[in-house]
Amino acid sequence: MRNPLPPVCFADSPRDSGHPPDRSARRAMIALLLPVALALALIPCAAPAGAAAEDPPGRRLILGGDLADRQARTETQAPGAPLLCAEDGTSPGMPSRGGSNEYLWLDTSHLNAIAEEVAITGDGAFGIVGWWLNNERTALYEVSGDNLPEWTRAMPLADFQIRVDADEAGNALVSTARNDSLYVFSAASPQPLHTGWYTDPRVGYGCAVSAGGDTYASVGGHPPGTAGGEIRVYDGGGALRFKAMLSANPEGVAVSADGLVAAANTRTHVKVWDAVTGALRDSVAIPGETQVAAVLSGDGGVLVTGGFSRRVWVHEWDGSDYVQAWSYLIPSTTWISALGISRDGSTIAVGTWTNQNGGQVLVFDRTISTPLWTDAGYGDWVAEVALTPDGGRIAAASWGRLGGSFGPIVSVYERRSATPIYTLGDDAIAGVGSCFSVDISADGTAVLAGGKAVHAREMGSGGWVMAIDLGDPAGLVWTPGDARPPAYRATPNPALGTTRIELAGAAAGSAGRLHIWSADGRFVRALTPEPAAAAWVWDGTDGQGRRVAPGAYFVRRPAALASGGAAAVPARIVRLP
């Protein structure tokens, strides 16, 4: 898993967690200079050579003094968010599987913070987000829910971006930041399961967790750069397995999905360890240096690096060393900005930045040293790529266009084609600027994205988080040829006013969220079940409160898509004029 922790502290050195000095002036300076620093950092010649709160009424928790006053505001926000960009309710652009610029919900209640990093659980149920710059916090969202966090954990000590990662089922959600601790949460509570500090004077630079949540890793560094870095690897109960020193500050950390291999890289080398014993597997040079995290396949057998050299390096474990399998020099770009590999090791995705305003996404079959395809249709830095475990779908995040440049900020592809099945256009939605981070669920139907309210190179604070549903509308229509009857009963049906929808027969049980789709495959609305009842009430409006057009609509629970069976069969509801 990508670049989670005790009611106990980790074994090593507890650190004083008293109040930090006032940083208001420093934050104001950061807000002023950050865009300038980013722009300067991207000039090619600069590249190197070669405590828990009680549950309030309802389900949303806010933990930490800096956010205590948000509870009242949060609970009074209208649930849901605009589901379509177009004012007439139609979907602009591509209509297939989610279309373009459509989303389940959008949270722009940023409190002047930027959503720097997001991660989604493998089952697609939850997303964890690191909000930074002002009102620093880690927030947990229900992906198929609405735009209000389920809980929030204030992180007032955080001096820089808050890094996050997620396991398969929301039992191990990790978060860390410079000058703050490493935390592991569950989706149920903002009270950390585990916490731990770094070896002074180091501070948090990154974290990662295995798919099963049985192995966590974190890396610490020293901002002045004189003390070097470290990696710490823990078991699922928060016990420190080992720590190891790094020669310089870390650029990334990775844990294989099976929890047996851990890696950390600096600008010049990546080290790989047996995550159980702490034995060093190998140290591999990164020619030309990098600021990108190296990535591991699900069993740790494939290691991928890349950076300022524009070259992708693929290494395979032969039992004693990571041996170079191949490398590929990417033409017509400035440097590599993002790397990803599928859990099964079959598919590699690469993002790039091209001076001044351009970027690419390339997808490789791991056994072939030339790309399957390249999409050069990005207007700026490709910030992150994420893949499903089988490599069948790839999500990409970009800063988007600026001035005369072009391109989307979120794209989702199928492995076989450079034509996206979903795009989120730059400037298509108010309050949505650059995308800094994206992640995709294991089945490829849920995407979580976050970023800045304006372009990354422009002055301004504020950010956004968005959930996107890519469930296949073609699978919504039930026909008599399907031996399974619909699992939902709607009364009255057809309907003029309110319709009550209940689970029927073998599908009865936990209700969860219910999604409504139009007959042409547009997402219409997510419904919350009635308290203590496996039933929902729909008043015939969409997520913006607008009455839907007469016609046929289909309902199904998103959780049923993965499990199949009767609950996966949708029901048809007819709205009358």
Task: Explain the layout of strands and helices.
Layout: E1 8-9, H1 24-41, E2 61-63, H2 70-76, E3 105-107, E4 114-120, E5 126-132, E6 137-142, E7 151-154, E8 162-166, E9 173-177, E10 182-186, E11 189-196, E12 203-209, E13 215-221, E14 229-235, E15 240-246, E16 252-255, E17 261-265, E18 269-274, E19 280-285, E20 295-296, E21 302-306, E22 311-317, E23 322-329, E24 335-341, E25 347-353, E26 359-365, E27 373-378, E28 382-387, E29 393-398, E30 408-414, E31 422-425, E32 435-440, E33 446-452, E34 463-469, E35 488-491, E36 499-503, E37 514-518, E38 523-527, E39 535-538, E40 551-556, H3 559-563, E41 571-575
Parallel strand pairs: 1-11, 2-7
Antiparallel strand pairs: 3-34, 4-5, 5-6, 6-7, 8-9, 9-10, 10-11, 12-13, 13-14, 14-15, 16-17, 17-18, 18-19, 20-21, 21-22, 22-23, 24-25, 25-26, 26-27, 28-29, 29-30, 30-31, 32-33, 33-34, 35-36, 36-39, 37-38, 37-40, 40-41
